[in-house]
Amino acid sequence: MKWSKIELPILPTTVIGSYPRPKWLREFIRGYREGRYREDQLREAFDDAVIAVVRDQEDAGIDIPSDGEQRRDEMVEYFAERIEGFIFYGPVRVWDNNYFRKPAVVSKLKYKGPMIVNEYLFLRRISKAKVVKVTITGPYTIADWSFNEYYRSKDELASELAKIINMEIKKLEEAGALYVQIDEPALTSHPDEMDWAVDVINEAVKGVNIKVSLHVCYSNYKVLKPYFDELRVSQLALEFANRGFRDLNLLKNLNKELGFGVIDVHNRRIEDPHDVVKAINKVLRYVEPECIYINPDCGLKLLPRSIAKRKLEVMVQGTKYVRERLSRKGFTNTVLRRSTECP
Q1: 343 preceded by cis ω (within 30°)?
Q2: What CATH number has the domain spanning 3-335?
Q3: CA-CA-CA-CA torsion sign (58, 61, 62, 64)
Q4: Could you give the C-alpha distances from 140 to 108, 161, 197, in angstroms and in order?
Q5: What is the three-class DSSP state of 114?
Q6: pLDDT by residue (tens digit) across 219-266?
Q7: pTM for this structure?
Q8: Does the pLDDT of residue 1 top 80, yes or no?
Q9: CA neighbours closer than 13 Å in the CB half-sphere of residue 100
């Protein structure tokens, strides 16, 4: 399908990535780890869960769904398991009583082959949407959240990871993917590293000819803003609801698309559609409507599934109210854009 022919409604709605696992899947995973189920049965359970959560998203009215990252326990360890050169020592506490298996780099990293291409192909097959989104953890965050016991420096490690992520994105492009999101929640956590961190992200998308979004959340956007123009991605997907929509002024003169976070994923309160309308009205002061996508702040995986779906329904309802108003001004559709500049 030609890019110029892929029309989406103005203010397309999407998700950031993760979605709550069905309770039965969590129980099945526990049973598998206890030896009660075979690996082929686990794969089937994951497939069934993807179908269920994609239906949740599509029933809620989401234009561009993801697979809910149902196969992933954690965003860094999932990819470290699939890259040669990583090992795991044990769980590390990250916050409250939540742990993750922090990987360690102990030898030269090597790309072993496609990591999430089959996930994309399954999602594309079962989704009714025109476009689906694939998410991948970025090289800077993987490097920042890993022990480095082999490379001379963190930036050398991140550069090697960027080459591997680049190969994976190109494999996704070959498979037909149109929209990939790179997740970099750690990006602004070390301001003194931003110059080379941006270079690393640009290395990860070098030679890629599809839409690439960069998701950065719960970060210092004042640190990020000087690099808006340097980042060679199509879109910045940023969190705003959790911060009370502060820092919107930093978006002035943004020359690429914005994935605008209007739903707080760390709060079980279900927003009102008019909250979403107010939020979108605020951002329209700074960004043109044809350059805005609407999404939650971040992944929804920590919420109860019923609340996650209801939040998406509210997000879609509020967006439709704004669309109706924009249609009277001549804004009805937008096209899928892969350019790094908008409009």
Answers
A1: yes
A2: 3.20.20.210
A3: positive
A4: 17, 8, 6
A5: coil
A6: 999 999 999 999 999 999 999 999 999 999 999 999 999 999 999 999
A7: 0.95
A8: no
A9: 17
